[in-house]
Amino acid sequence: MIRRATALTAALAATLFGATLTASPASASTAARADLFPTILNLPNGWQPEGIAIGPGPFAFFGSLADGSILRVNLVNGASKVIADGPGTPSVGMKTDNAGRLFVAGGPAGNGRVIDTRTGATLASYTFVTGPAFINDVVLTRDAAWFTDSVNKQLYKVAIRHGRPAAQAQTVPLSGDIVWDTTPGAFNANGISATPDGRGLIIVQSNTGLLFRVNPATGVTTRVDLGGANAANGDGLLQIGRTLYVVQNQQGNVEVFTLNAAGTRGTLRKNLTSDAFDVPTTVASFGNRLYLPNARFSTPPTPDTPYWATAVRK
């Protein structure tokens, strides 16, 4: 399961850390170089990963469900380092921005935080809700960070003004087409992305396999027409242009949809899987690859349980 960096890969690292570090991940040269990177990223034993974010540059960040610590992994050679010790509560979904900030969903703690990826310092903290909650995932749009809550029928918005996250979060109740399951333990809204036109949000409801477009101004949801397809056990979402990747954790599968601009309709184009998947949860992109952490939910977690992330071609 370990694929070590070759001399060619090591030489490539020196190049990447120089001239190409700020190159667009979508460029042909970056995609070609990414083919040389390891396809398995080994994480520390007992880490219990769930969320992943990539960038700036060829670096992935993984949160720990065990204690909320943040791990940085070099995509070139697999080297890893803990950059921030956790608060003792889980780190779940996460996203990075071009300013080197990591936005982290706090799961059952009902909170979120912003971390400096260079220093590991906590830049901001938010208590979204007290009582039962599961802050599951986050997406960054042009003017806000949006967090889902799998227990409560609402989203949380942290406005970003003049490049800075606001000091307070706003609660946006969900209404419209989504039917909320209030059964204890039910997981409703999970992954979240933007629509291709940038005017709306898309969430997946894990327990129904349905996708919903959310009007960010009102919280009104409209079911996305998937042409009969279903995203059962849908977890992390990733939108790139008009392509939406939907991770189905228990199935060990990634559904790939083509959306219309408004995100109201989607067509299933293909499925991606790998023998190296073991309950993948979320997904991030670099070059021509997708990277997915394996939460291994069917394996009892111990301090010695191995964990890894898997890279697959888009």
Description of the structure:
The protein has 314 residues and is mainly beta. The chain has one domain: Methylamine Dehydrogenase, Chain H (7 Propeller). It has 2 helices and 26 strands. The protein has helices spanning 7-16, 28-34; strands spanning 40-43, 49-54, 59-64, 70-74, 80-84, 94-96, 101-105, 111-116, 122-127, 135-140, 144-149, 154-161, 164-165, 170-173, 175-176, 189-194, 201-205, 210-214, 220-223, 234-240, 243-248, 253-259, 266-272, 284-286, 289-293, 307-313. Strand 10 and strand 11 (144-149) form a beta hairpin.
User: How would you describe the shape?
Assistant: globular
Q: Report Rg.
A: 18 Å
**CATH class designation:** Mainly Beta
End-to-end Cα distance, whole Å, is: 21 Å
Low-confidence segments, ≥5 residues, pLDDT <50?
1-26
Tell me about the largest β-sheet.
5 strands, antiparallel
Tell me the CATH superfamily: YVTN repeat-like/Quinoprotein amine dehydrogenase
Kindly state the number of beta strands.
26
If classified by CATH, what would the architecture be?
A: 7 Propeller
Can you give the mean pLDDT? Answer: 91
Q: Helix- and strand-based class?
A: mainly beta
What name does the CATH topology carry?
A: Methylamine Dehydrogenase, Chain H
Give the SSE order as H and E letters. HHEEEEEEEEEEEEEEEEEEEEEEEEEE
Number of helical segments with 4 or more residues: 2
Number of domains: 1
Kindly estimate the percentage of residues that lie in beta strands according to DSSP: 35-45%
What is the helix fraction of residues, given as a range?
Answer: under 10%
